[in-house]
Write a structure and sequence with these properties.
The chain is globular. About 45% of the residues lie in helices and about 15% in strands. Helix 11 packs parallel to helix 14 and helix 21 runs parallel beside helix 24. The strands form 7 sheets. The chain has a 4-stranded antiparallel sheet with strand order 1-8-3-6. Strands 2-7-4-5 form a 4-stranded antiparallel sheet, with no helix packed on it. A 4-stranded mixed sheet has the order 17-16-15-18, sandwiched between helices. It folds into 3 domains: about 140 residues, Jelly Rolls (Sandwich), CATH 2.60.120; about 325 residues, no CATH class; about 120 residues, CBS-domain, CATH 3.10.580.10. By secondary structure, it is α+β, with helices and mostly antiparallel strands.
Length: about 650
């Protein structure tokens, strides 16, 4: 056994074995690692030794912690101390300083007796120049290659042994299905001519073009039934009077499930297909169903036909396997949560249909507004149905006792139905079954005034959910009035915005990982990481607060971040970092929940750090840093 404390060089075989366990060395291959091992020295630092001193130490080597641990901090003459990070076995020190030829921006001190492998600067810079993965590892910002690798590693490691039913649906492309023999008609042609084309060529839709041969709309057989026959319109009217415009399209290289989801979202049955800027065909709902029985459309069709919560429960159990297939094919996590949200929306709608069949709510104009994850279309395998009820009590037909009693039955029935559908996984934090969240428009207006005038933490935490609000199944008069009232009262109110900002700043993100523990800003440690509250929600909160300030009406987090970038509120670099961080932590959430479901455990958001790889920890640590930067930005803007 070598006594490293006496300054001996590290034994190459030991170094090779050690480096092969950690990034970025394990990605280099055996030959480069052998060359590195020959150049390594080892240094022993007793507990309390300052390995690097902020703005003083000349950095001549990359330090790789072989045993022990260090703390990175900033201190000042006024005895202020700010812990920046904790480093343990396998972590590196000095990479960014060597690249920038800079002195350290933090002080690094041994937490305990620590051994470090030392790689000379010349060898380090040679590796950076020759090994792309090595250079990416030590760059300051998220790199697409590293994030892509983290996605792949997480997906492969966590999905491989999940025993859930798989659906082979996601490899089919639109190009495999598209019908190239579509028909077109000039917008000035008559409806009579349109009907003749549909009959002659036996097609269910016809593309409409202007005089310059540009597509301007589409007409289907349904348009003929609902817009012409039902209304008694003349057949000599121009086609443009009944066409749907603008034309919604999909690229020919897109996957079939994307076309299916677009049809469902827009409630259409015909979708023109583009290649470049040219329309080359049409795909129909029937085409999709013929090619795959287990498609999103089929699941949605099944939901519409279900008559009992027990049957809906059986169907909901298929959703995780369906999403697993999507993830195996490389779909981004945001796409998966969008699909889950769409399915949950339809389950919610179906529950309302069945309840309304037995209970008459027509005596008062009513709207159900979903909040939070449901409103943002960011549902996971833990369904969250936070919702409120708003109604118009000004109508002559409104009866206080009768309408309230009826709404109480409907919301209680809705909660009971959904609880039976999802059993232990369902969450209700704000529910219309509670009389507090089932009010007429004028009462909601009073609630909003209270939140604005007294933005204390508990009320702000509730109010922020109302900035994520969406009507189900569709907007109507009460929902439109409530949203307008909310925006008119809250927009530009500095006191309320400061309340939102203070709520966002109230919890500092974790600092780092040390061995198998999470290190907090105050140095405390824990063995549980809440992926929702510590990683997902801070990014959601940042996007919400900034969107509110810049009057962006999007509710989805990634859409908000994109809009913030477009208006110049955040840089392109920060947008890319935020998008990748949000995608990665969402993927980790979904993977963790899938694995719980596969062993019949209740899915959640808590993960044990021992279950994370080094690459996952590094990627999550960068998310911690990103959230910290978000907090600095919010503090500068609002205080």
């Amino acid at each position: 056994m070598i006594d490293y404390s006496k300054g001996y060089a590290v034994e190459p075989k030991v170094a090779i074995q050690f480096l092969g366990r950690f990034s970025p060395f394990k990605e280099l291959g055996p030959t480069p690692i052998q060359e590195i091992a020959r150049d390594l020295d080892v240094e022993f630092y007793p507990k309390g030794t300052q390995i690097f001193r902020r703005n003083i130490t000349e950095v001549t080597h990359l330090h790789i912690i072989q045993k022990g641990g260090v703390k990175l901090f900033v201190s000042s003459e006024g005895d202020t101390f700010m812990l920046k990070s904790i480093g343990g076995e396998g972590e590196t020190l000095g990479g960014s300083w060597l690249l920038g030829n800079q002195k350290p921006d933090v002080t690094v001190e041994a937490l305990e007796d620590t051994f470090c492998l030392l790689l000379p600067k010349t060898t380090f810079l040679k590796l950076v120049a020759e090994q792309l993965s090595f250079e990416h590892f030590f760059s300051d910002e998220f790199q697409n290659q590293r994030i892509s690798k983290a996605y792949t590693e997480t997906r492969n490691r966590r999905i491989r042994n999940i025993g859930l039913k798989r659906f082979d649906y996601f490899t089919i492309l639109v190009s495999d299905v598209v019908r190239p023999n579509f028909q077109a008609i000039n917008s000035n042609s008559t409806i009579q001519k349109l009907a003749e084309i549909m009959t002659q060529f036996k097609v269910g839709s016809v593309l409409v073009k202007d005089n310059s041969d540009n597509p301007v709309g589409i007409v289907t057989k349904k348009d003929l039934r609902t817009k012409v026959v039902a209304r008694g319109l003349g057949y000599d009217l121009p086609v443009e009077s009944i066409m749907t415009s603008p034309v919604l399209t999909i690229p020919i290289q897109a996957r079939l499930f994307e076309a299916a989801l677009r049809m469902v979202r827009k409630q259409i049955k015909h979708l023109p297909v583009t290649q470049g800027n040219e329309i080359v065909g049409v795909i129909t709902k029937h085409d999709i169903m013929v090619h795959q029985a287990t498609s999103p459309l089929m699941l949605l069709r099944d939901i519409k036909s279900i008559e009992s919560p027990e049957s809906m429960n059986l169907l909901s159990r298929n959703i995780p396997g369906f999403i697993r297939s999507l993830m195996e094919e490389g779909a981004k996590a945001s796409h998966c949560t969008n699909v889950i949200s769409l399915l949950y929306d339809r389950i919610f709608d179906r529950a309302m249909d069945l309840i309304a069949h037995f209970l008459d709510a027509s005596s008062v104009k009513t709207s159900i507004m979903v909040l939070g994850r449901a409103a943002r279309s960011e549902q996971t395998f833990v369904p969250v149905y936070d919702y409120l009820v708003v109604y118009d009590s000004s109508e002559n037909s409104f009866s206080s006792d009768g309408a309230e009693a009826n709404l109480e039955k409907i919301t209680s029935g809705l909660n009971s139905f959904l609880s039976s559908c999802f059993e232990d996984t369902l969450r209700f934090r704000i529910s219309g079954a509670n009389p507090r969240w089932r009010k007429p428009i004028d009462v909601w207006s009073g609630y909003i005034d209270e939140w604005i005038n007294n933005p204390i933490p508990p009320e702000v935490a509730i109010a922020r959910n109302f900035l994520d609000m969406r009507a189900l199944p569709r907007e109507n008069e009460p929902s439109i009035i409530l949203k307008k009232t909310l925006l008119d009262k809250m927009s530009g109110n500095k006191n309320f915005m400061r309340g939102l900002a203070a709520d966002f700043l109230s919890v500092a993100p974790p600092l780092s990982f040390f061995r198998n523990e999470i290190v907090e800003a105050d140095g405390a440690t824990s063995t549980r990481l809440d992926l929702e509250n510590r990683l997902a929600e801070p990014i959601v909160d940042f996007a919400r607060i900034m969107s509110f300030k810049y009057e962006i009406t999007e509710t989805n987090t990634l859409s908000r971040l994109k809009s913030l970038n477009e208006v110049g509120a955040i840089s392109q670099g920060l947008f890319s970092e935020a998008m990748e961080a949000f995608e990665f932590q969402t993927q980790l959430i979904l993977m963790n929940q899938l694995r719980s479901l596969a062993i019949n455990n209740v899915p959640g958001y808590i993960i044990d750090p021992t279950d994370l790889t080094d690459l996952e920890k590094r990627t999550l640590k960068e998310t911690f840093d990103l959230i910290g930067r978000f907090q600095v930005m919010v503090k500068e803007i609002f205080f």
